[in-house]
Amino acid sequence: MNNNAIEAIQLVKQFKQKKSKKAEFDKKRGFFQKKAAQPIFTAVDGIDLVIHRGEVFGLLGPNGAGKSTTIRMLCTLLEPTSGTAFVNGFEIRKQPTQVRQSLGTLLAGERSIYWKLTGRENLMYFAALYHIPTRVAKQRVEELLKLMELTDRADEMVEKYSTGMKQRIAISKALVAKPPILLFDEPTLGLDPQAARNVRDLILKLKSEGHTILLTTHYMEEADLLSDRIGIIDKGKIIALGTPEQLKEQIQQKEVIHLEISGWFEQLEHVIKEIPGIDHLIVKEGENSSLQNISLQTVNSRAAIPLLIDKVNVNGTHLVNMNILKPSLEDVFINLTGKALRD
Amino acid sequence: MTNLPNVLNLKPNRLLAELNAIRAIVIKQWLHTVRYPTWVLQLLIWPLIFPAAYILTARAFAGPEQIALPVFNAATGTDNYIGYIVIGTLIWMWQNIVLWNVGLSLREEQLRGTLESNWLTPVWRFSLLIGSILVQTVTIFFFIAVTFLEYRFLFQIHFQGNIGLVILAFAVAFPSIYGIGITFASLVLRIKEANSLVHFVRGFVMIFCGITFPISVLPGWMKSVSQWLPQTYVIRAIREITLVGADFNMVKQDLLILLGFGFIWMVIGYFAFTFMDRLSRRSGSIGQY
Question: Cβ(A294)–Cβ(A283) under 8 Å?
């Protein structure tokens, strides 16, 4: 058996822009000039990717980077514009049924299940759609309800469940056919911290059982905790690939300084950027509206800090807090793209 | 690596597995129907209310002692104008319900957010529509029975003719009515906003198929259009059987034409579904609201 669970080869997905965009495009071009082709948006731009059996692979990137489009092509919901992929050895264009049989996919979380059915009815329904005989399905559904600690509530309508419980049913739906490969698109999005932690524990348990998991997330800590390897995707391209440690090593020689500043004004950003040895400055909204959070990278914090203090503590602006940290995956992302993940 | 038993290893008989999936789709659809119980009320009220408006209008226009009836008889071959209207409106409501329920079934899944979940499974995608049609057929059977019973007991209307032949006429019309529904369901996957399209189609049927009047009163070009609509033939055949007592030979031609339309509409429906599914996969519109 091929050791690759998923293999993408030069996968490309382009979408035609909407008419309004085309009209805008035509207007700019001028009336008498020859009509141009409809503008194209490239969501995924030639991705090459190999995911080995039994590994958890995190696809990390900001909104609109191409994570979900990639997953949608792999699970045959979207047809690639060019390139191809193999899932469990099956080609996504020519063998879509076998691909779907090999996959358990979680998209759109709680909205992907029927709220007017009970948890048990949902799972029995999807088991039948995966062609599982009723007798086997009943047993499997019981196992899943027990695993998800939903046995007591299994016969209540899903509309009465909490968001976390709905997500557990949605995950159970993906697991009902015991597929070897799981695609989880933002599995903890919108969950409270406890529910999110339960989902992360479950992913680790599924990995220990031998499942291959492709996980998309824009939570850096989640990707760091769960993934054996991570691909960072931006503007449809994979811009970095490796274990979390390998990625962090890329900027190991750098230090990351987090600042909290009161009395922030825009020009200060340019002032700080001019300090020698400082790069990748990111301004973030603070939890406290009177404070501004700043993140920056430097190769020599000892030299940079006195200059920072001098430049910041002027004209009523004060440095309130400062931390020097080891680089995180988010800093790797900032280093690669020059922007924060949630931009 | 742990050897995970998965659905690939189960190797069930594909046909049996697909039938089991259709059974599950029917159960799911049925549970949704009964968990919105107002449909039962609609099923009792609409067969009575909708034709009643036309019947009372006809009664008013018939004049004192219903002196206009001979004119109606000359045009239609029957005095039973109530039965005439009931048959026409029944077929119209059948098509209407199919458009709303089968035609919008995939769109409803799309709005609910569950269409992608279904599309992610290895089930034959057309099975989702088959399941919807089966549930619809049960509802329609109930609807037709309620219509005949309500008019039998409330308006004392006597329908005559061979009941087997009536069932045959409905059965022969089935592929056309549902083929149009499947085509509609496929278009809606792409067009999204389908309400105006439903109103257009049912308005078209209402005018061109003579649901409350004989086709002979239409201007020439409208008569030509009505010849291309299967509803025209099923309305005419069932009226002939139940109001005039026509035998098989008298309606044979209409039934054969209906079979032809049924074949054409089923083929159109299947290819429209396949084409729209492909188009949606290219444009990524399956999961879009």
Answer: yes
